Amino acid sequence: MKRKRGKGKVFLVILVVLLLAAFVLPYLVPLSAPADTAEGLPFVNSAFFEAGGTPIHYRLAVPEGPAPLGKLLLVHGLAGSTFSFEALTPLLVQAGVVVVSVDLPGFGYSSRDLDYDHSQRNRAHTLWQLLSQVDQGFAPDLAAQPWHLAGHSMGGGTAYAMALQQPDRARSLVLMDAP
């Protein structure tokens, strides 16, 4: 009997040590900065926008040829990035849509600034600032068009907040698996 209790205690101690390691180890890993982009941008269509000292990475894809059919912002979900839309973006551009995908602060190549206000209202404000900058690079007729907003999961909350903040600048809202 004593042997069984001894094995049970050893198992329990090992289990507790493993659980502690699983819960504590992530806090020992330092927060990483986005990959060094000093030698160039991460993607051919990458750009950065600074919002209140926080660098925001985004990708802009503009169709070639006749005037674009519209403009679409894609906002990723939790633990996503612009890469979440890697397969979708070329199809949309081929169909004639201008596509902006963005790495929300703390994700992808955007800053991991701990002082950034991650409320949906602030994220929405930041993304409207970004889209205003993007619009400055377009011809006046395209710049004047409202944006289609699409958000996946957590990004759906941001897109929804954007539509509420500036409904005159939002042509439509698409929520993909959003809460």
What's the overall average pLDDT, rounded?
A: 89
Distance between the termini: 53 Å
How much helical structure, as a percent, in the residues?
A: 25-40%
Radius of gyration: 22 Å
Q: What portion of residues belong to β-strands?
A: 15-25%
CATH class of the largest domain: Alpha Beta
Q: Mind describing the biggest β-sheet?
A: 6 strands, mixed
Structural class, please?
alpha/beta
How many domains? The number is 2
Identify the CATH architecture of the largest domain: 3-Layer(aba) Sandwich
Based on Cα principal axes, name the global outline: elongated
Q: Which strand order do you get reading across the main beta sheet?
A: 1-2-4-3-5-6
E-strand count: 6
Query: Might you state the CATH topology name of the largest domain?
Result: Rossmann fold
Figure out the total of helices. 5
Q: pLDDT below 50 for ≥5 consecutive residues: which ranges?
A: none
- Write the CATH homologous superfamily of the largest domain: Alpha/Beta hydrolase fold, catalytic domain
Sketch the topology as an H/E string, one letter per element.
HEEEHEHHEHE
Q: Quaternary arrangement of the chains shown?
A: single chain
Walk me through what this model shows.
It is a single chain. The chain has helices at 2-28, 88-94, 120-136, 140-143, 154-165; strands spanning 46-51, 54-61, 70-75, 97-102, 147-152, 170-176. The protein is α/β, with parallel strands linked by helices and 179 residues long. The protein has 2 domains: 1-29; 46-176, Alpha/Beta hydrolase fold, catalytic domain (Rossmann fold, 3-Layer(aba) Sandwich). A hairpin with a 2-residue loop joins strand 1 (46-51) and strand 2. It starts with a helix and ends with a strand. The mean pLDDT is 89.
